[in-house]
Design goal:
The chain is built from four helices and 27 strands. It has 408 residues and is of the alpha+beta class.
Amino acid sequence: MKVRGHGISIYFSFVVIPVLLMVFSAVTPVSGDENKKQLPAREIMVAPEYTGIIIQEGEDVSLDLNVKNGGRQDENIELSVPSVPKGWKAKIKTYSFDVTGVHVASDSSRSLTFEAETEKGVKPGTGTYTFVIQGKTADGKLTSSSRLVVTVKEKEKEKKSKGLNIVTSYPVLQGPTDAKFEFSLEVESKIDKDTILNLAVQGPEKWDINFKPAYEEKYISSLRIKANQSTTMAVEVKPYALAQPGQYPIKVKISSDKAKAETELMVDLTGTYKLDAGTPDGLLSLEAYQGKEANLSFYVKNSGSAAQNNVRFMSFKPENWKVEFKPEKIETLSPGDLKQIEVNIMPAEKALVGDYSVSLSVDGEKARKDLELRVTVKASTAWGWVGIGIIVLVIAGLVFLFVRMGRR
C-alpha cells in the first residue's frame, strides 16, 4: 500500500500538476488593449444628468454632470459654462472646490456637480432659462456641448388654479424634428360637481398639436371630469418639418365656467439625421482593367437639419480588389452641405472579364447611405495591340508569299 500511494503521488507531481498548469496558463484574460482597439481614437462627452428640470421660484439648481472619455487615450478636459441666463450665476464643482478642468482616463467617466443660483438681489421671474455647458480637450481639437433647460414656476400656482390642477411627470421631451412627441397630463378637479373642461393650446406656428384621451387614438377638444376626481389625457405634438433645432414651449390651458389652469410643456428638437449620396449624372457604373485603377466621383449631402460629424466611408468588394477614398472621412458636414468624394477602384490582376458589384457605404452620425456600383472589368489593352501586331505580321507574310509566287 505504501508503494502504491507513493506511485500515485509521483503521478500527480509529474503528470497531473504540469497539465493543470498548462491549462490555467493558456486561459488568460482578454487584454485591455484588444478592447481599446474597438474604441474611436478620441471622443469626449459632457452632459448633465437631466436636460430639462422644473423648479419653483427661489430654488437653486444642483445636479450631476457626467464627463466621459470614450477614446483610446487619456484626456485633460477643460470645463466651462459659456452661456448663463441673465440674473443667474453657474459653476461646476466637486465636493469642496470649483472645477475648471478634469483628467479622464481612456474609456471612463467622471461625475461632477453643476450648480446654478440667482444672483444676489436679482429674482428671475417664471419662465424658461437655458444653460450651455461645454467641455474641450486641452489641445482644443474636441468639443462637447450640452444644454440644460430650467423651467421656473410660481410657488402659489396650485392655489391660483381655483379648483383645477395639471400635473405632468415629463414636461420636457427631446428628439429629432421628424419624431412625434406625446405628453401625458393628469388633470385634477377640486370642483364639487361634474364639469366639462374646454381644452386649448398655444404652440409654434405650423406645428400639429392635438389632445387625446389616454390610450386612445382619437382627438378631442373638451373633457368631462367627475367631481373631486382626476383623469389622464395626452397632448400629441408633431413639429413642423422645417423647424430648426432648439427649445419650443407649448402652453396648455384648461377651463370651465368656475375654474381654470394652465401648464407649460417643452419640446427640445435635436434636428433630423439624413444623408444622401450619388453621382452627378445618376450613373452608378464604370469600366476598369485588370490591375489598373479606375476613378469615380460621387457626392455626399447632409439632407437633415442636424450636423453630421465623423462621416466615414467603407466598401464591400471582391477578393483581392482595392478601393480607396479621397478624402478618407469628413470631420463635420453641416446641414445642407455637399462634398465631392473620389473613389479609386483597382480590380485584381487575375480578375476575369465581366461585371462585378462593389458596395460603397457612407456612415455618419445616426445616419447611413449605401451605393451599389457595377464595375465592368475588361482585358488589358496591351493584349489588343499584341493581337493587332500578329494580324499585321500574318498579312505581311501572305503579301510577301503572293509577291514571290507571282514572280515565278
